[in-house]
Structure formats: structure tokens, C-alpha cells
From TrEMBL:
Compositional bias annotation for Basic and acidic residues: 30-39
PROSITE patterns membership: PROKAR_LIPOPROTEIN
SUPFAM superfamilies: Glycoside hydrolase/deacetylase
Region (Disordered): 30-52
Protein name: Secreted protein
Species of provenance: Streptomyces sanyensis
InterPro entries found in the cross-reference section: CE4, Glyco_hydro/deAcase_b/a-brl
């Protein structure tokens, strides 16, 4: 695919410019050139990249750095009257980190192959070595506690390498917070707004200080300012969404994906786009399930190590459910499809195969944009709010009567406020 070749080459150019800049040799024009619009109001082709405008500016201890605008993003375009909206699909990953399974690096390859960008929700403790665990002070738990452990120096080095490359490819780095506490006894669902603010601040701190904490002072930095990069999250176990969103709205976040929605166009809550996971078909079952590998697994085997004879069937079942969800949106209301995953080999890795097969099937279709949450909210923010409100009236799988050209033929007009008693309000 020419687009993939072009994007991969661009990433290499940015990487070379980035690390040349660390020794004061960077020159160039900033690299974000205007892109032409598309025929369907989607973001245009991925923007070209070049060397940063100036030498890389290290931040703090050099764990992160400002390197200019992120490359390889789609440029949002406002829908024109009568245009069909693109079909957005967001593939996202909870607790992103590179371990011996090497699933992070694998799905970066998959993204390059099918020209798909994704969102990686990093768990902050994956950048904190075990011997420094006491630096983490989780709400309602003793310092150094974590239900998902910590990392070692080699794991931190590997994870940072993948985060660095992922960002340069146009992927998003969000947060899955830190200790992944669930349930009633101090779980995230019991946390206050202030406790969420503490958790967020610590998640940022572990990203901004991984060099010092891991003793990797000579390593290359992450090529972004995490205070600017971090605009959205998914909470552990999808708990604590309300208090988190209230905290996030005060901290400048732009979206959350921690709840449960239907496949309809999203709206806002507390000023954030609510891009929650969605209920999708469950082939062969009389109910739907959440668009996440974990939920398929729980409903199939109830365990991560179910009957090996069923592994292939279960993976096909998840893939087919996601494809049915895609089809009813693509042929219907074009609502963005939100899919969540984990870098886990549950039931023999069958869910990872299902996700990869889904990416291969949908991201190559016309009018389809496989993007990160950041790129989706950029597009949503660029639209006429009245147009989005009209699209929100379409139900799950409902195509507009008469087609999109008729449905969006003219910009909607806001209803006039009701007049007061006896005439116009004063």
C-alpha cells in the first residue's frame, strides 16, 4: 500500500530529525503541511512531516521532550451539506506496555500494514521500577500498592521504545492510570474527585520522570509533552467514571471512554466527549456484550484458560460480533465504532487474532478511518454542533431515510426560544 510506505518513511525521517536535534543539529520547517480535503468530510490524508522547527526541547529530567506537532495525524474537515460522514473505528488498548509477548510492537506493525492509528492507554506503574514502588501513593491504599505490580528496567526500556515509535506513527498515548484497583474496598469506583486528581497527577509524574526513576539517564526521551498529550482515559474495570469525568473536566481532558453506550453518535458529559465502549452483537447468543476482548472472554469461558478446543471458535465469535457491529454502523447511522482490548493472550491468544482480523477487514474499506480517540475528538470538535445533534437522532443501525445527501442536505437551524407570556421576552 503506497500510503503505508509513505507513512513509514515519514516516521523514519521524524525519528532521525528528533534525535539529531538532541545534539543540536536539527533544522527544518516544522513538517506539518496542509493536507487537501477529502470527498466525505473526513480528515484529509495524513499530514506530511519533516524536521522540527528547532532543536528538541527537553522537559524536566529529559524523560519527555517537546518536538513540535505530532506527525501522521488526519486533519479534520467539517462535513459539507449532503456529505456522508466517514465511518470511524477506534481500536484502543488498556494498560499498554511491552513485555515478553511483544504484543505492543506487533500491533504497531499491524497498524502500519493497514494504515490504522490507535490509542494506547498506558498504566503509569509500567514506567516505575519495583524498587521505587514506594513513590506511588494510591488513594485509599498503602504506598507502593498496585494490583498489577510494577516493572523492571528492561521492561521500562522496551515500553518507552514502543511508546516513542507509536507516537511518531500518529498513535495516541492516553492513560489507564496506575494501580488498577477495582471493587468495593478502595477501588476506583469509590474515589473522590480529589483522589482522582491525585491519581492523574501521579500517572503523569511516572511518565515525566521515568529516566530518573529507572536510572536510564542516557536513554532517548519520549517525543511529547505529556501534559499536552494526555487528553483522555479509560478507568480500570470501567468503574468510577462519574467522579473521574468531573476531575478530568477540571484538568482540561477532552474525552472519556469508561462507560457503556449504544452504537449511536456521541455527546458530551461534564464537557468531555463520552466515547464509552459499546454494546455489540454476540453471534449465537440472545444478548449483546461490550465491545472489549475481556467481556467476550468472560461470557465464553469465564476464565482466561478455557477449553483449548473452543479457542478458535471463541475468537471467530468475537471477530464476527465486531464485524456485525461495524456493518450495522457502516450501512446505517455511521456512528463511530469503539473497541477496547488488552495486550493479553487469554484463551490461547484467540482474541488478539480476532482483533487483527477485524482491523484487516474494516480499515481497508472506503470511507473508513481507523483512528485514535484524539483524532476522533478533533473531528467531532470541527463539526457543526447542530449537524451532530441531528445525527444523534439516528438509532442503532438506522440509515437516514432518503440517504445522507437528503438527510444532511442543508444545515440544521436552531429552534427559536419560546416567547414569554404576552409577547417576546425582555
Amino acid at each position: 500500500m503506497p500510503a503505508v510506505t509513505k507513512r513509514t518513511a515519514a516516521v523514519g525521517a521524524v525519528a532521525a530529525a528528533l534525535f539529531a536535534g538532541l545534539v543540536g543539529c536539527s533544522t527544518g520547517d516544522g513538517g506539518r503541511k496542509a493536507a487537501d480535503g477529502t470527498e466525505h468530510g473526513a480528515p484529509a490524508q495524513k499530514q506530511g512531516v519533516g524536521a522540527p522547527k528547532s532543536a528538541v526541547r527537553l522537559i524536566g529530567d529529559g524523560s519527555t521532550a517537546f518536538t513540535g506537532a505530532q506527525p501522521n495525524l488526519l486533519r479534520p474537515q467539517r462535513l459539507k451539506p449532503g456529505e456522508t460522514p466517514p465511518q470511524f473505528v477506534v481500536f484502543s488498548w488498556d494498560g499498554a506496555g511491552e513485555d515478553s509477548q511483544k504484543l505492543f510492537s506487533h500491533f504497531r506493525e499491524v497498524g502500519r500494514k493497514y494504515d490504522a492509528t490507535m490509542t494506547y492507554f498506558l498504566s503509569g506503574v509500567y514506567l516505575l521500577p519495583e524498587e521505587k514502588r514506594s513513590l506511588y501513593e494510591p488513594p485509599q491504599h498503602a504506598a507502593g500498592s498496585s494490583d498489577i505490580g510494577f516493572n523492571d528496567v528492561e521492561g521500562i526500556r522496551d515500553t518507552v521504545r514502543e511508546l516513542r515509535g507509536a507516537w511518531l506513527e500518529g498513535n495516541e498515548v492516553g492513560t489507564h492510570f496506575n494501580g488498577h484497583f477495582c471493587g468495593a474496598n478502595g477501588g476506583v469506583g469509590t474515589w473522590s474527585v480529589d483522589e482522582w486528581k491525585s491519581e492523574i497527577a501521579q500517572a503523569k509524574s511516572f511518565v515525566k520522570n521515568w529516566k530518573t526513576n529507572a536510572g536510564l539517564s542516557s536513554a532517548e526521551p519520549l517525543p511529547f509533552d505529556y501534559d499536552e498529550e494526555l487528553i483522555g482515559a479509560r478507568t480500570p474495570c470501567l468503574q468510577g467514571q462519574d467522579a473521574f469525568m468531573r476531575a478530568a473536566s477540571q484538568l482540561g481532558f477532552r474525552y472519556d471512554t469508561s462507560g457503556v453506550n449504544s452504537q449511536v453518535w456521541p455527546g458530551r458529559k461534564y464537557g468531555l466527549w463520552d466515547l464509552s465502549l459499546q454494546m455489540v452483537p454476540f453471534p449465537g447468543r440472545a444478548f449483546e456484550t461490550l465491545s472489549m476482548d475481556y467481556n467476550f472472554m468472560v461470557n465464553q469461558s469465564g476464565t482466561t484458560k478455557g477449553d483449548p478446543a473452543m479457542h478458535a471458535y471463541w475468537g471467530d465469535q468475537m471477530r464476527d460480533g465486531l464485524l456485525r457491529a461495524f456493518d450495522r454502523a457502516y450501512e446505517g447511522n455511521r456512528a463511530p465504532l469503539i473497541i477496547g482490548n488488552h495486550f493479553e493472550s487469554w484463551n490461547g491468544g484467540t482474541y488478539m487474532t480476532a482483533v487483527e482480523e477485524t482491523i484487516a477487514a474494516v480499515c481497508v474499506k472506503s470511507d473508513v478511518e481507523c483512528v485514535s480517540f484524539r483524532q476522533l475528538v478533533d473531528w467531532l470538535d470541527a463539526q457543526d454542533p447542530l449537524v451532530l445533534e441531528k445525527m444523534r437522532q439516528l438509532q442503532v443501525g438506522q440509515a437516514p431515510e432518503g440517504g445522507w445527501a437528503r438527510f444532511l442536505a442543508a444545515p440544521p437551524v436552531a429552534a427559536a426560544p419560546p416567547a414569554g407570556k404576552g409577547g417576546a421576552e425582555r
